[in-house]
Amino acid sequence: MSISDLHVEVEGKEVLRGVTLRVERGEAVVLMGPNGSGKTTLAYAVMGHPKYKVTKGSIELDGVDLTELPAYERALKGLALAFQSPVEVPGVRLSYLLNVINAIRVKGFDLSYVDPRFLSWARAKARQLGLSDEMFEREVNVGFSGGERKRSEVLQVIAMSPRYAIFDEPDSGLDIDGIKVIGEAIAEMKRSGVGILVITHQASIADFVRPDRAYVLNRGRIVAEGDYELVRRVLKEGYESFLEEVS
Amino acid sequence: MGEPVRVARERELREVIELSEGSVLGRVMPYPKEVEIRGRISRDLIEEISRSKGEPEWMRLLRLRALETFEKLPAPNWLEGVESVDLDEIAAYVRPKVEAAESWDQLPDWLRDAYAKLGLPEAEAKVLSGLTAVFDSENVITRVKEELKKKNVIFLSIDEAVKRYPDLVKEYFGRVFPMADHKFAALHYALWSGGAFVYLPPGTKVINPVEAFFLIGGEMEGQFEHTLIVADEGSYMHFIEGCAAPMLKKFSFHDGMVEIYAKRRSEVHFTTIQNWSGSIVNFNNKRAIAEEEASVEWVEGSIGSRITLTYPTTVLRGPGARTKNISIGIANGPGKIKDVGAKAIHAAPNTRSLIISKSISSGGGIATYRGLVKVLRGATNSLSHVQCDSLILDKESRAYTLPRNEVDEPTAEVTHEATVGRLGEDQLFYLASRGVKEGEAKAMIVSGFIRDVLRGLPLETVSILLKVIELEFSELGSVG
Amino acid sequence: MNKLRARALEYSKVTPWQKVADSPVTKYYTDWRSFEEVLNKPGQVSYERPRGEWDLVLGPCGSDYNYDIDETLLDLRASRLYSEHVARLEGAHLVEARGRLRVALCRPTGEAWASQHLVINVPERAEADVIIYAPRGAPGSTGVEVKVKEGARASVLIVAEPDPRWPTAYLIRRAVGVRASLSSLVVASPSAVERVDEQTVMAAQSRLTHASLTFSWGTARVDNLVDTVQGGRDSSADVYGLGVASGPSLVSVRGTAILTPQAAGSSSRFIVEALLLDEQARAYTMPMMRIETGDVNVASHRAAQYRLPGDQLFYLESRGLSPGEAVELLLRGRVDHLIGLSGVPGEAAETARSLAYALVKRSLTGGLAPRLEAPAPS
Q1: Residue C333: its chain A contacts at CB < 8 A?
Q2: Which of A39, B61, B231, C193 is the one with CA 20 to 30 A from C75?
Q3: Which chain C residues are Cβ-neighbours of A100 within 8 angstroms?
Q4: B6 lies in some domain
Q5: pLDDT at B12 over 80
């Protein structure tokens, strides 16, 4: 997945000012930055949210230019996003949504298609991620705690079998056990060849998903690029001094 | 269960079914009756009024046109509680004459008592009871008058304004509230007298809230008073009319009007607190036009009178215009009706309306919220929310909520919520165990119920209002 | 039938279609003129057998069960529509319901006005689960009265399928007796001018959960009124209405919840929603409450009119659903939710669901204007 010189405007204001980064298949890349640096904007822009306007630059997935494509086509081409604050979708049960996600990939959109094998796989995966069977039958995100939402997001991303996956703050709202579970799930995906981008500002997930490379985003620009050492330094020194040093 | 009991239960169901025969159903309940109009208003009376005021020709013609319109329009059939209107009686009262001032001692005991309980000094109480036309030894009033003068704000009785600023008044008078809107609006235009005229020059911000009663006193208290406020671009004012303290009125049918023209980026707050005693039928016609980015806020506190009907309306005519409409209605006592509400018409994109209504009924009173949110096609991305809460304090009292939401623009979002609360025996018992009497408990709960909408009002207004509520629900019963 | 019909005939001559305007700006939400125009249209009406498998098919095309009725829950003096309906009935079908019952009415077909009427009685302390299919191929009115007697429990699904060309009124009246309970659901497809006129009267300690689902597409005008009158102590009513509008159509979802002075300790919850699917659709909502006593338990109502939220649509699209697919999924979700709220059990819920899904699909195809969604939050 390669993002080149991406400029993104939101409501007339420029938030990303030329971001360049890449993620290879099978590698885990961490994107860090202080609050307000534009991390979530990047996630939304890459996924294709209509409110985030790309004014310059491009987004490519395995050589295919995604920049003009609508969100759902990007998803069908192998991109998945686990939202930081996923919205509630009343009336649509999680199990049902997963069914549909599977159906699209297997036989095309069909609201009545139910694959019992897929469902039992999904249910088992849900349990593994710490979601009870009862949650599995609840309306998507309705009444879910922050941690439960994160688990539900990861479950959906796994069900999508993507080639590249972006995780926006997957560790926030989780306790240490939760981070472990999510982290291991993401690490498993990486091992199976998915290109992973983890967006975070606290990077505790890095303990479980060892990043190959890292970027630091500040005020809409990439200000640093490095390997795992970079992650350690940012964590140790905090953003302030690090950013001073860089500028 | 024995036979007689079973039969009785069957009868209950049949009674329930019979209930539906003609008398209880929603949209036809009770069978609507047209208001009976007795007597008449003559052209001569209109001419006499106009002549005695020394009005310009255009105003005299407007009145006559209004009388014609009044005669042509049908009587309304949706006024619950109002059975008849006696025009001869109105004509007698409205005829220009010199009022003999009464003395303080001639006022009824209960009224003087009420003022004492409210902690109002005698001087102020005299003003409130209509005995003095001007009251100017209060520092606040002087400060406000100075500010108005300094900022070139035109603020005077409308009768005078018609003569002193005829072109200005003519440009706006009658343009906000159409005379053919309903029969009593036309009657108002024929008989109007008294009221305030305010013109705010562009960019003028009047910081202190202006309590009209204290500035132009008696002028504000007529039966058909007409207040016209024109806020030019970027101006700001908070206008307060009426008073929370109980007031005695001689007329029995009040048909007043307020027109507000809020130009681009202006902001007008209009507060009315009314606590008229007696058997008055209080009919109000209030409407504002808000241009681009303008804001109009109505706060209506209706406490007194036998029946009050008031539906402040804002037409959001310019993009980005906003309106907030807060109404508090207290119907305390048998036969007391507060039929209040709000109307918001969205006629431009990105407009917003917020309507909050708090109605309280007690002692057999009826509190009604009647509203309309109309979003015209083209009013894209407009938002409207209505929250109407009713508090019913005992089992004899009633609450009606009758909203209408007509949305012709699908990008608009219109929501409405209503809840009905009650004062239950459990709460009363709990408070009683703390030594709080029933009347006091009612007063506590009512003030808590309305507290959040009182923000933004001047402190004195709020404190008198809360004291009035205390009095209203105390063991001595409603005032007047 | 004679006395009741004679009375109805008299009233029909002097009663207006509607006495009080619906709002300060719109006189009538129902287009009465269209009804007036077809009222006396000449022509023949035949009765066709409805499709599907039914326990009872009622009318000239099936079994008759035709009787005189001497009373009706319809208030004949309230509107000309009700008195005309009763005056033009040749008879009414009276059915006692116990257990599972699937009933269909013969389909009146033709260009002249046709009125038909069905009364379902659920005897005291009985249990019944009823599905009523009421298809029409002619203008006019279909009346359905459901009376749940003391202590009984019933669920009733009414499927209203008018002929899309003709002005049609479905007059639905429900009475829930002392300590009885009713779960009720109405699913209606649209016609050019349609009025789905529902009312439930409730006695002491009765329970009602009810949902109405109406669709309007093309140039349809659908007016759904759902009134509830609670006239006895400790009764509880949860009433929901959802109107889904697409194309240049208008749907109004409204009603009045009344708690009479005898309804001490009762509860009422009334929620109406109108969902607009594209830039041409319009919706009016009018939930009203008349509470005649302070001794109520809980009373609340809510109305909303909205588009499908953009952030929810985007969320589904990020999972690979196309915009149309996301809309359909969300709509199905809303419909499922509403059917759940009505409380009708298994078989009726299934029937309602598949019908509703078909109506959802029909709403989304058929010449939609550009897709409409609320802007996503920042």
Answers
A1: 89-92, 139
A2: C193
A3: 319, 321, 325, 329
A4: no
A5: no
